[in-house]
Amino acid sequence: MHIHLLLVEDNLDLATTVIEYLEISGIVCDHASNGQAGLNLALNQHYDVILLDIMLPRLNGQQLCAGLRQQGIQTPILMLTSLDALPDKLASFAAGADDYLVKPFELAELVARIRALSLRRSGQTSRLQVDDLVMELTTRKVSRAGQELHLSPICWALLEHLMRASPEPVPRERLESKIWGDEPPDSNTLKVHMHRLRKTVDKPFGRPLIHTLAGVGIQVKAHA
């Protein structure tokens, strides 16, 4: 599987080590040493995966990630950073990152994550639809009955996971793991975000598409 990758990393010693290992693994790698240069490359070249350090000069990794998503670039993005606190991870995912790897890391694990992201992209659809609810993954827009809806990053992630599984219900534990990883929130957090999601997706339209199945999970299901 041919993979063309962009690495945006200002630590030149680390960048050299990573590039050499990736090339041995058959991955073609372009490199930028600051956020602005990375943005220019990402907007003008096609990449299968983008690796971003967070602490970049000129434009940090989270700003760069958010800027790419705003420009409609849906290339999988993996954050490489020494910041391992939960708020840093959540901020990266909110900016549009797909994965997160804390330094120091094993190069073999990095390659495995790159290949997984590349495979996921090659097999993913660009549009999800349940009834009159439509999610455009490429442009990151969601609408119902032709009316555009505005969702927070966490509500977007919850809805995408539910729509991918539709019509099957998703257990609450799986939703929490998908959004918050190994550091689950308090028991009320998912309930709060689901209330916000229902308020946006269901309440103005009269016909609910989001359903809670007691003891089973939450589903997005079209009307019969």
What are the SSEs and their pairings?
Layout: E1 3-8, H1 12-24, E2 27-32, H2 35-44, E3 49-53, H3 61-70, E4 77-81, H4 86-95, E5 99-102, H5 107-122, E6 127-130, E7 133-136, E8 141-144, E9 147-149, H6 153-165, H7 172-180, H8 189-201, E10 210-213, E11 217-220
Parallel strand pairs: 1-2, 1-3, 3-4, 4-5
Antiparallel strand pairs: 6-7, 7-8, 8-9, 10-11
Q: What series of H and E elements makes up the topology? A: EHEHEHEHEHEEEEHHHEE
Q: CA-to-CA gap between the ends?
A: 42 Å
Helix content: 40-55%
The CATH superfamily of the largest domain is known as Response regulator
In the CATH hierarchy, the third-tier topology of the largest domain is known as Rossmann fold
What is the name of the CATH architecture of the largest domain? Answer: 3-Layer(aba) Sandwich
> Over all CA atoms, what is the radius of gyration?
19 Å
Low-confidence stretches: none
Q: Strand fraction band?
A: 15-25%
Number of domains as seen in the coordinates:
2
Indicate the mean pLDDT: 88
Q: Please provide the count of β strands.
A: 11
Sheet with the most strands: spatial strand order: 2-1-3-4-5
CATH C-level class of the largest domain is Alpha Beta
Tell me about the biggest sheet?
5 strands, parallel
Overall 3D shape: elongated
Q: Number of helical segments? A: 8
InterPro entries: CheY-like_superfamily (IPR011006), OmpR/PhoB-type_DNA-bd (IPR001867), Sig_transdc_resp-reg_C-effctor (IPR016032), Sig_transdc_resp-reg_receiver (IPR001789), WalR-like (IPR039420), WH-like_DNA-bd_sf (IPR036388)
GO molecular function, one term: transcription cis-regulatory region binding
GO cellular component, one term: cytosol
Domain Response regulatory: 4-118
